[in-house]
């Protein structure tokens, strides 16, 4: 059966300078050409200027089309991209005409799925496409770009090659056992297994950082009313977002903002005062504060350096000892001394740089920037863990002198984990789940 031709608007919904409709499949050209009047015939890898024709043949828009001939396209199929003016009406008209001419509306991620199925991208690269699109900080984009470039697959390839070689040697040993062929010495098997385990363990350890880069962290700012939480929040987001007033207890709701801290996306949550209150609205705020604290990966306790700390604050400090927290003494521009913790002035900006550095250190991102390949999602982490588990079982078996047939089973298990990572053996339902998380047109 000939592959279906799919179509989608590839640019985000709404109006813009340009809007692109992407058509992929064997009929891409024959579907696109009748609705266009091009100045010159389509040519692979060339943009062509032309008119988009209305149903009656009159000119509706001026467009630029680009034709990518199979297999040198994003999907590996014939692809035509029509860039019209970014009018939803025009783009939908192109979409409908393409469908009338036999194309099918693409599912979310279907273009990338085709790139994967044709072998042009492995699964980690396909996931990187989505991560790149969804990146909220430049650092996230860089990590995704490296993964899209195949950094992860490259790091795994030597391990895979070594395992395949080992399997070949062991299988040969089994086949020729009766013929007195030199079987691989036990120590050599163990050495190889341990050798390939090391880089995988390193990769598995990168998940904590990769996850951090991809998902970011939530940081809650807590403290008594008027301690300067909102002011500090604004300093950190460098925008006048939260309302700052001189009256105690004004920040009654949670205000959240995404900031980039050293390339890590941080969801900053400004909370209402943690003071107990009879006022109903404020009680709700206090409850929300508790929730925000419970959800936060990191808590910033803001203390007013011009005030002596009260019992409540002392209790909070005690509680925060159990978890990731930073104690910040604010208003040091008007206070002479503070206590244990970092000293800042949200008003003048003093100490804010140090606070940022400290937070960054808390997020343990020191090593992130130079790293070229890391596991960024749970699926990848589990695949690598499966490989490591297989190797560990093989190491135990080989060490105990168990027959090579049994050791081989464990090595095959490890290899399957690596295939799972790159998508070579990933089940269809898992693939569907991954690609359905993409946007339409990608
Ligand atoms: P929140 O209730 O904890 O969110 O506190 P706000 O951020 O609303 O600040 C309360 C008051 O303290 C406001 O009048 C701020 O201008 C003032 N304030 C906040 N930070 C500082 C600071 O570092 N120095 C001084 N002098 N005043 C500050």
UniProtKB/TrEMBL annotation:
Sites where the protein binds Mg(2+): 230, 251
One Gene Ontology term of the molecular function aspect: GTP binding
Coiled-coil region list: none
SUPFAM superfamilies according to UniProt: P-loop containing nucleoside triphosphate hydrolases
Binding sites annotated in the UniProt record for GTP: 226-231, 245-251, 270-273
TM segment ranges: none
One Pfam family it belongs to: MMR_HSR1
Sequence ranges assigned to domain TrmE-type G in this UniProt record: 216-364
Gene Ontology annotations of biological process type: tRNA methylation; tRNA wobble uridine modification
Amino-acid positions noted as binding (6S)-5-formyl-5,6,7,8-tetrahydrofolate in the UniProt annotation, renumbered to this chain: 22, 81, 120, 442
GO cellular component labels: cytosol
Localization of this protein: Cytoplasm
EC number of the protein: 3.6.-.-
InterPro entries: G_TrmE, GTP-bd, GTP-bd_TrmE_N, GTPase_MnmE, MnmE_dom2, MnmE_helical, P-loop_NTPase, Small_GTP-bd
Cofactor: record remark: Binds 1 potassium ion per subunit.
Entry cofactors: K(+)
Keyword annotations from UniProtKB, A to Z: Cytoplasm, GTP-binding, Hydrolase, Magnesium, Metal-binding, Nucleotide-binding, Potassium, tRNA processing
Top-rank EC class of the record's enzyme: hydrolase
Protein family according to the UniProt entry: Belongs to the TRAFAC class TrmE-Era-EngA-EngB-Septin-like GTPase superfamily. TrmE GTPase family.
Subunit text: Homodimer. Heterotetramer of two MnmE and two MnmG subunits.
Biological role: Exhibits a very high intrinsic GTPase hydrolysis rate. Involved in the addition of a carboxymethylaminomethyl (cmnm) group at the wobble position (U34) of certain tRNAs, forming tRNA-cmnm(5)s(2)U34.
Official protein name in the record: tRNA modification GTPase MnmE
């Amino acid at each position: 059966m000939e592959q279906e031709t799919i179509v989608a608007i590839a640019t985000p919904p709404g109006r813009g300078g340009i809007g692109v409709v992407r058509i992929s499949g064997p009929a891409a050209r024959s579907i696109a050409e009748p609705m266009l009047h091009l100045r010159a015939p389509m040519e692979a890898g060339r943009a062509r200027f032309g008119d988009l024709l209305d149903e009656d043949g009159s000119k509706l828009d001026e467009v630029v089309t680009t034709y990518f001939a199979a297999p040198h396209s994003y999907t590996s199929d014939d692809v035509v991209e029509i860039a019209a003016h970014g009018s939803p009406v025009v783009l939908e008209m192109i979409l409908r005409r393409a469908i009338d001419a036999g194309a099918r509306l693409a599912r979310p991620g279907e273009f990338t799925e085709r790139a994967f199925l044709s072998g042009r991208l492995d699964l980690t690269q396909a996931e990187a496409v989505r991560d790149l699109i969804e990146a909220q900080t430049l650092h996230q984009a860089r990590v995704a770009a490296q993964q899209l470039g195949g950094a992860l697959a490259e790091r795994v390839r030597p391990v895979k090659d070594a395992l395949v070689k080992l399997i070949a040697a062991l299988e040969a040993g089994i086949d020729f056992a009766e013929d007195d062929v030199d079987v691989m010495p036990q120590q050599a098997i163990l050495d190889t297994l341990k050798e390939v385990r090391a880089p995988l363990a390193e990769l598995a350890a990168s998940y904590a950082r990769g996850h951090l880069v991809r998902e970011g962290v939530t940081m809650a700012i807590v403290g008594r009313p008027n301690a300067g939480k909102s002011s500090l929040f604004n300093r950190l987001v460098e925008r006048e977002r939260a309302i700052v007033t001189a009256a105690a207890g004004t920040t009654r709701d949670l205000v959240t903002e995404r900031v980039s801290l050293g390339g890590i996306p941080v969801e900053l949550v400004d909370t209402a005062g943690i003071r107990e209150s009879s006022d109903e609205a404020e009680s709700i705020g206090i409850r929300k504060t508790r929730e925000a604290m419970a959800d936060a990966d990191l808590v910033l306790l803001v203390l007013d350096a011009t005030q002596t700390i009260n019992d409540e604050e002392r209790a909070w400090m005690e509680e925060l000892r159990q978890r990731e927290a930073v104690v910040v003494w604010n208003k040091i521009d008007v206070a002479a001394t503070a206590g244990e913790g970092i000293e800042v002035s949200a008003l003048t900006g003093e100490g804010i740089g140090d606070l940022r550095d400290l937070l960054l250190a808390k997020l343990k991102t020191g090593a992130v920037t130079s790293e070229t390949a890391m596991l960024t999602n749970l699926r990848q982490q589990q695949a690598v863990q499966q490989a490591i588990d297989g190797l560990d079982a093989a190491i135990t078996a080989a060490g105990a002198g168990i027959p090579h047939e049994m050791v081989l089973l464990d090595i095959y298990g490890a290899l399957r984990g690596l295939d799972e990572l790159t998508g070579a053996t990933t089940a269809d339902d898992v693939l569907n789940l991954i690609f359905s998380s993409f946007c339409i047109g990608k």
